[in-house]
Specification:
Blueprint lengths: L17 H43 L8 E2 L8 E2 L4 E2 L4 E5 L5 H8 L5 E3 L10 H4 L3 H6 L3 E2 L4 E5 L9 H8 L4 E6 L2 H17 L9 H4 L2 H4 L2 H5 L11 H4 L3 H9 L7 E5 H6 L1 H12 L10 E4 L4 E5 L5 E2 L14 H22 L9
């Protein structure tokens, strides 16, 4: 027997049988194959989803917008999307209140060349916003591709004195959309909204609604628009806002006539596509909105929108309020009053809109 003294090396042999080695090797191979298969399956799925997304997105993009590209050859698994950016608007819907500015913006947003700002930014007409600067305004704009037009709308721009100069300081070549309706109809719509807002205002819990009611909820349109001596109340704001030429002149003193498109709000209700095509031509973009994008909602009494994906969209319930019945004699009196003002507006814009004269 060998010596086991302190200078003797002690070696232990661990024996593993051949069947156990084979089983261990097979187990490792199976795990490796399992992981490889699932990684390839995952990558394939991701690739397929991305490829379909790129193809679909490319079909939806306007012809002159850069297509989504893949990197390298043979469709690798990562795609590069062209950069989007927030841009100052190249077009503004400047008014007029209660003439369909929201409907117009939503209709134009169907066009793939157009991106709309969310909500009314009120940058040019509110000093507290304007003093924040153009960078603040730009950050309120949506992301858009190169070649797309950014549009913002705030109806109060039209009547606020300093707005036109401020807009020119931002972009002297900007395009402007002014949507108008027959003046008396617009005034009645304005009265209806003001009355609705006053009627739904939250009163203090201890108040008496009968004694706290706003004059807008207690006086009729006739009482507000015609003074006791029988003359038209030109200081009543809904009527004053319908004297379009007073405000249009200010804009045309600053911008060229060809930069301003007059949109007929009454026709936009009856035949929206005709007005939208005029705007597409005015903006220099191809006609992409079609009759398919509109359907008449009998319940609401006006046209709603249909996207190219088949989704239907109507303006919210507060739009299209039913107007109160107004004394025909008052309507006739007001229309006669507006004849001279309408004529001056026609001369400014070089177009007769054919509004009734009585």
């Amino acid at each position: 027997m060998p010596s086991t003294g302190p200078d003797t090396d002690f070696i232990i042999f661990v024996g593993i049988s051949k069947p156990k080695i084979a089983a261990l090797f097979l187990f490792v191979m199976l795990i490796s194959l399992f992981l490889t298969f699932h990684i390839l399956l995952y990558d394939s799925a991701v690739y397929s989803i991305q490829a379909v997304s790129v193809i679909s997105a490319n079909k939806a993009l306007p012809p002159d917008v850069p297509r989504l590209k893949h990197q390298g050859k043979d469709f690798p698994y990562h795609f590069h999307f062209p950069k989007t950016s927030r841009k100052l608007p190249q077009c503004l819907i400047i008014g007029v209140r209660k003439c369909g500015t929201r409907a117009l913006l939503e209709m134009l947003n169907l066009h793939p060349h157009i991106q709309k700002a969310a909500g009314e930014v009120h940058f040019f007409d509110r000093d507290e916003n304007y003093l924040k600067g153009l960078e603040w305004y730009r950050r309120k704009m949506p992301h858009s591709f190169r070649g797309q037009i950014t549009i913002e709308k705030s109806p109060s721009y039209f009547v606020t004195p300093e707005v036109a100069e401020r807009v020119r300081a931002m972009n002297s070549s900007i395009k402007l959309l002014l949507i108008v309706r027959e003046p008396v109809t617009r005034a009645i719509s304005d009265y209806t909204q003001l009355r609705s807002h006053a009627a739904t205002a939250i009163l203090p819990s201890n108040s008496n609604s009968a004694t706290q009611a706003s004059p807008a909820t207690t006086k009729t349109f006739e009482e507000l628009s015609i003074l006791a001596n029988g003359t038209v109340n030109t200081s009543y704001r809904p009527l004053a806002l319908s004297i379009y030429h007073q405000y249009t002149l200010r804009w045309l003193e600053i911008f060229k006539r060809e930069q301003l498109l007059i949109v007929n709000g009454d026709q936009l209700i009856e035949d929206p596509l005709t007005q939208i095509r005029r705007i597409e031509d005015f903006l220099g973009i191809e006609r992409r909105i079609s009759q398919h994008n509109f359907y008449f909602n009998k319940t609401k009494g006006f046209y709603c929108l249909r996207t190219d994906m088949g989704d239907n969209k109507c303006l919210r319930e507060t739009k299209g309020r039913r107007h109160p019945t107004v004394d025909p004699k008052v309507i006739s009196k007001l229309r006669k009053f507006f004849v001279e003002h309408n004529q001056r507006f026609y001369e400014l814009i070089g177009e007769d809109l054919g509004w009734p004269e009585e």
